[in-house]
Amino acid sequence: MALLCCCGILRDVPDHLTAPAADPSGPALESTPSPVSPALTNAPVVAHVVRGGFVESVHHGLAVVTRPDGSVDFEVGDSSGPVFPRSSAKPIQALAMVRRGLDTEGALLALACSSHSGEDFHIEAARSILDRAGLSETDLQNTPDHPYDEVARTAWIAAGLPKQSIVQNCSGKHASMLATCVLNGWDTTTYRDPGHPLQAAIAETVAELAGTQPLALAVDGCGAPIHAVPLVGLARSFGRLARATGGPEARVAAAMREYPEFVGGTRRDVTTLIRHVPGLIAKDGAEAVYAVGLPDGRGVAVKIADGSARARSVVLAAVLRRAGITDEVALAALEHEPVLGHGQPVGAVVAVGI
């Protein structure tokens, strides 16, 4: 049992549920068996992979819709089980930064909430955040990568350009973290450390919005800390952000609504979803997580148990339909997940049991 005091947020956490902020270039963490959440192991089937009318594979998963007061409206599986929100946590992390003085607005604030596609306008915006803070790309500590978007990635590689932190999909978040550090006089070289004042502020905000203390701490794909919360807590957080009418919460939600292309990209379903459903905010995450906030204060969260992204948006669409969302453009962007045979559609991934 380890005593982890991330500024009072996690205490008496079992050793297997803790992790330091690792250097992405450093040695890999030792792989050891860990307990699996019963919510994941007992998750019901939520999607079929259909090829030529035959169910070839199935995906298990969890889903929940919360009421404006944060209670459960309906759920599929056990939404009290912990999950890492992965990049779905970014709007919550951005809220913590705004509360600590981050003064960006509009597109630049939306980029702080993003897993952007690495298109030219995303890269320019990330550079702008750094420039305003008197920083440069060399200050970024997110993992270098090629652009996320297939078209942008192909052009980048064809031009002979290497992987870079500024084009990696988390550069908006990391640039905003650095800018927040500068505004507060905090050290910019250790901003990924869980004990850093920035990360302590984020942990506090995660706990507040989720309505529960984080249940685990680990290193996200970009190198920053990530906190596990119950899936219902993730939904609750997005409902709170979406219904806010003032303060930092409303600033974050307004930026996402006004600049959805900065939250995702020109060819991303999360961008289409935000653009076509008035008042909605949404954020996709790795390992098949998706979170949505509805303007009436309801929250939605989905997690596919095996981490397969191909079922994530399809299941989310089914949950949104059940929650009363009817915009067919937005839903079509989520539901279209064909199964190919010889390069042609011969089936689809379809949601079941929602």
TrEMBL record:
It holds the Pfam family Asparaginase_II. Coiled coil: none annotated. It comes from the Bacteria. One of its GO terms (molecular function) is asparaginase activity. Its EC number is 3.5.1.1. InterPro entries: Asparaginase_II. Signal peptide: none annotated. The keyword NADP does not apply. Keywords: Hydrolase. This is Asparaginase.
